[in-house]
Amino acid sequence: MSRIGKKPVAIPSGVKVEKSGRKVKVTGPKGTLEMQHHPWIEVKVEGDAVQIINPKPDMRTYKAMHGTMRSLIHNMVLGVSKGYERTMQIFGTGYNVKEQSGKLVLNVGYCHPVEVPIPKSVKVEIKTPATRGNDVPAVFICSGPNKQELGQFLAVVRKVRPPEPYKGKGIRYADEVVRRKVGKAFASGG
Q1: Are 108 and 114 a contacting pair, CB within 8 Å?
Q2: How far apart are alpha carbons 129 and 186 in whole angstroms?
Q3: Which end of the chain, C or N, has fewer beta carbons within 10 A?
Q4: Protein fold of 3-81
Q5: What is the pLDDT of residue 54?
Q6: 141 and 85 in contact (C-beta within 8 Å)?
Q7: CB contact at 8 A, 88 and 160
């Protein structure tokens, strides 16, 4: 049996979980999320907890789905109660970021600005719009209740200009560590 799947998902105050058929709907102060749970797994809402039940605990694929469904429902409950937030940094001289008519506009060293559409559930707050040299990065914070949608949006943004290993220029997560390489060594003498 899945160790993660066995744990019930606690429902905090202010959050409401409803189940009808295979649809699980979670409502809270940050919004509403819903999903279809896997047909192999049973979901029961009991008081202030959600119990995920695996009908065939000896089968490996059922065990995997058991833990996955529990994590997805837990993420939904956390998302509508607290929300998710991620900070991004842009390093590189002359790079900048701005929000314009529902799109994130990135100037990151290409001959044209790159526009990335912002999903409806994601909110973008720009702390520092432009970089100052290679030391002070442009910073923006993205937040939203849906962990998967937020993560997908940030992955698309990071892919526009991933950090390069020599000077560290590019778009990265604030807690990301970029492994640096040593540049070309010049031989002396001759």
Answers
A1: yes
A2: 37
A3: C
A4: Outer Surface Protein A; domain 3 (3.90.930)
A5: 86
A6: yes
A7: no
pLDDT tens figures, 105-140: 999 989 999 999 999 999 999 999 899 877 899 999
Measured in whole angstroms, the distance separating CA 58 from the mean position of its chain's CA atoms is: 32
- The burial class, CB within 10 Å (0-12 / 13-18 / 19+), for 176 is exposed
Instruction: Tell me the fold of 84-173.
Output: Outer Surface Protein A; domain 3 (3.90.930)
* pTM for the full predicted model: 0.87
Question: What tokens appear for 31 in the block?
Answer: 């919004």
Q: Where are the domains of the chain?
A: 3-81, 84-173
Return the CA Rg of the chain.
22
- How far apart, in whole angstroms, are the C-alpha atoms of residue 172 and residue 170? 7
40 class by beta-carbon count within 10 Å (0-12 exposed, 13-18 middle, 19+ buried): middle
Res. 97 pLDDT band, cuts 50 70 90: very high
Helix axes 147-160, 60-81, angle to 10 degrees: 90
12-36 per-position pLDDT tens digit: 999 999 999 889 999 999 999 999 9
The token pair at 65 is 């789905």
Q: Please tell me the predicted confidence (pLDDT) of residue 190.
A: 55
Structure tokens that stand for 129 in this block = 């719009």
